[in-house]
Known about the structure:
By secondary structure, the protein is an alpha/beta fold. The chain has a domain at 4-84 and 149-225: Rossmann fold (3-Layer(aba) Sandwich), CATH 3.40.50.300. It has helices at residues 42-49, 71-76, 94-100, 109-115, 117-120, 132-145, 162-179, 190-196, 219-225; strands at 4-13, 16-26, 31-35, 55-61, 64-65, 79-82, 150-154, 182-186, 199-204, 207-213. The strands form 2 sheets. The protein has a 6-stranded mixed beta sheet with strand order 6-7-8-3-9-10, sandwiched between helices. It has a 4-stranded antiparallel beta sheet with strand order 2-1-4-5, covered by helices on one side. The longest helix is centred in the last third of the chain and has 18 residues, at 162-179. The radius of gyration is 17 Å and the shape is globular. Adenosine-5'-triphosphate is lined by residues 13, 16, 18, 36, 38-44.
Amino acid sequence: MTLLLLDGVTASYGASQALFGVDLEVAPGEVVALMGRNGMGKTTTVRAICGMMPSGGVLRFDGQSLTGLPSHRIASLGLGLVPEGRRCFASLTVRENLTAAARPGPWDLSGIGALFPRLAERPHQIAASLSGGEQQMLAIGRALMTNPRLLILDEATEGLAPLIRAEIWAAIARLKRDTGLAILVIDKSLAELRAVSDRGVILERGRSVWSGAMADLGPDVSERLIGV
Ligand code: ATP
């Protein structure tokens, strides 16, 4: 069974085409890494999935077509996005950020606090005054509070100190192990992606050019297509 299905997805910024045919599947409980060098179309693929830009081809979530649906409808189907750049409501507190997005389901404030104790320690702190790593945890917590069936993490560890990065990877691993949440993850660290992902898809110039089990991603392919 497939939760998220992309088949031949295309997308353009005005006259400039960025995606030429992206194929991607995520099954329930599966962690899939979306990889590729800078500018190959990873974030654009996320934007197309989330209805943030018009797209062509087949885009389905749990069998339902996403084509033409507005972003809020797609989110309400169970797609939780942690966008590039960890956007939180800067002037709201940690707790307000978490409750603003909440939808019914197993995730609540105490669950987020257990996953990220740093957030539990500062419920009344204004988001803008959090460290970069804490803001990223808050962005993940916010997405989880929507009780998604698929979590999309776009560069969740970018620009963070090694210790904080390790905390976030540990949280992702815990999500996979304890909740069986389906996750689509984009990150520059191939070693961390290997540790947590079941399968991977590599994009090159807006096309998926490799997909398979992470265990089958050899150094020749990763060097040629990802640069590491
Ligand atoms: P990165 O790892 O650098 O974030 P990426 O794989 O996520 O890269 P995208 O950001 O999806 O790549 O970019 C894909 C292509 O679309 C690139 O050629 C990029 O220049 C172009 N592009 C991205 N955003 C825009 C935009 N707002 N307007 C026009 N072109 C854009």
